[in-house]
UniProtKB/TrEMBL annotation:
InterPro entries: HATPase_C_sf, HATPase_dom, His_kinase_dom, HisK_dim/P_dom, HisK_dim/P_sf, Sig_transdc_His_kin-like_C
Protein name: histidine kinase
Residues covered by region (Disordered): 1-24
Enzyme Commission number(s) of this protein: 2.7.13.3
Catalytic activity of the protein: ATP + protein L-histidine = ADP + protein N-phospho-L-histidine
Gene3D superfamilies listed in its UniProt record: 1.10.287.130, Histidine kinase-like ATPase, C-terminal domain (3.30.565.10), Hypothetical protein af1432 (1.10.3210.10)
Length: 459
């Protein structure tokens, strides 16, 4: 057996098979240690370029450095090396897909549990030290939910790991048999690729790169597409149910009012009044539900983004003062115009901001702002200082009648209706995670590019 075969023989699946309920320590450590395999390859060819992102915050993005040295990004390099060195599937599939969100990675990696453990370990290391772009597409909330962890548990694990590694290893091992062969193997692989790369293998590897990019794109949009499909189905159900409930409710309310007008006994009259009040309450809920399920067709006009923000602040200022929340509206929207139904988009922004005020609580803050999203849209951001969304709230926050607050304090139709209004105006409402930052929701609205003549007929 040659010395180059040594690493391969050491990288065997753990006892119990690759699909054990959780990843064994030794296996997870091997995967985490080899996570920057692509960067090892970059360092073997150009050590200075590989070290630059660790020391210079203004260094080019990781993918740019990797492409300049090897012609591929970190994951593509790792896939090629894992194939040439015949790594086992549980290792090769994870190394080549570390930037995929867990939802997409489950379909392409051999051991999803092992992948989740290693990806979270690498992600936390990058968040707390230096980033090499190894886990840019990772979905941290999904990883925490899959592994049943929270931030407090991660902090405790990090403290234990850092404490255990406080003693630095010697810089030079005097035993030459213990010197790692990774650098030499990488240099040999890079040189071999330049000299003897077979055309068929290269084409297959390029096809694999395209498939990997497609899986990444599908994974990035899967949650949003699932949410949109679920809300569309709920809207159809709500529209049908609302119509069916409204007809018998009108009969109940009408008969109760007729009986109340002719009822001589006060006790029976009080009971009939209770029926009338509760019927009116149900009717109000149905009106809100139908506004989500079948909103009126929008009447889009050219509107200044600053006017929308000012209207939202005016509407919510009393509620913010009552709750003791500081309501801030940042600039940056001057000269920016959107094309939308003013009342509907204002309703959407008010609904999202009201949720922020409720979540921030006394002495908290809510910040509204507007930026140019792209050539076709304008982005409104609503941030609050609240505790953020739990994994359950993040999954269901757009569901009708779901309310993360105590029962009876809200109908849970604010965000669903905001989403429906934004959607039929050509925009969207979504939650945007911010690492160690505020809770942020984003409302996108189509930009108004061409000027419109003012309709003077309704002077």
């Amino acid at each position: 057996m040659s010395r180059a075969d040594g690493p391969r023989r050491a990288l065997r699946p753990p006892p119990g098979g690759p699909h054990a309920p959780r990843a064994p320590d030794r296996t997870a450590c091997v995967l985490a240690a080899l996570a920057p395999l692509g960067w090892f390859a970059v360092a073997a060819v150009d050590a200075g370029a590989a070290a630059e992102p660790l020391h210079d915050p203004q260094a080019p993005p990781a993918a740019t450095v990797q492409a300049a040295v090897w012609g591929y990004d970190q994951n593509a390099i790792a896939r090629r090396l894992a194939h040439r060195w015949r790594f086992p599937d549980w290792l090769a599939s994870a190394l080549g897909n570390l930037n995929l969100p867990l939802a997409a990675a489950r379909f392409v990696v051999a051991d999803p549990d092992l992948f989740a453990v290693a990806q979270l370990a690498v992600l936390e290391t990058e968040r707390r030290t230096h980033t090499l772009g190894l886990t840019d597409g990772a979905d941290r909330p999904a990883l925490l939910a899959a592994l049943k962890l929270d931030d407090a548990a991660l902090d405790e694990l990090w403290t234990r790991v850092v404490g255990a590694s406080a003693e630095p290893a010697p810089a030079l091992d005097p035993n030459p048999h213990k010197v790692p062969l990774v650098a030499n193997l990488l240099k040999m692989a890079a040189e071999c690729r330049r000299r003897n790369g077979a055309a068929l293998v290269l084409r297959l590897e390029e096809r694999l790169d395209h498939l990997h990019a497609a899986v990444a794109r599908v994974g990035d949009g899967a949650d949003q597409r699932t949410r949109d499909a679920k809300l569309a189905a709920l809207a159809e159900l709500a529209a049908g149910a609302g119509h069916e409930i409204n007809n018998p409710l009108a009969v109940i309310s009408g008969n109760a009012q007729r009986l109340f007008r002719t009822e001589p006994e006060p006790e029976r009259g009080e009971v009939l009044q209770t029926i009338i009040r509760q019927s009116q309450r149900i009717a109000g809920i149905l009106r809100d539900l139908m506004q989500f399920a079948r909103p009126p067709q929008p009447k889009p006009h050219r509107t200044a983004a600053a006017d929308l923000l000012a209207a939202v602040r005016t509407d919510l200022a009393p509620l913010a003062a009552e709750k003791g929340v500081r309501l801030e509206v940042s600039g940056g929207a001057v000269g920016t115009f959107v094309r939308c139904d003013y009342a509907q988009i204002k309703h959407a922004l008010v609904a999202v901001a009201r949720n922020g005020i409720e979540a921030a609580g006394a002495e908290g803050w809510v910040r509204l702002g507007c930026t140019d999203g792209d050539d076709e849209s304008v982005t409104f951001t609503i941030e609050d200082s609240g505790p953020g969304l739990s994994a359950e709230s993040l999954e269901h926050c757009f569901d009708p009648f779901y309310c993360g607050r105590a029962a009876g304090r809200g109908r849970g139709l604010g965000l669903p209706t905001a989403w429906q209004f934004a959607r039929q105006n050509g925009g969207d409402v979504r939650h945007e995670p911010v690492a160690d930052g505020p809770t942020r929701f984003v409302v996108t609205v189509p930009r108004s590019i061409t000027l419109e003549f003012v309709d003077r007929q309704s002077a």
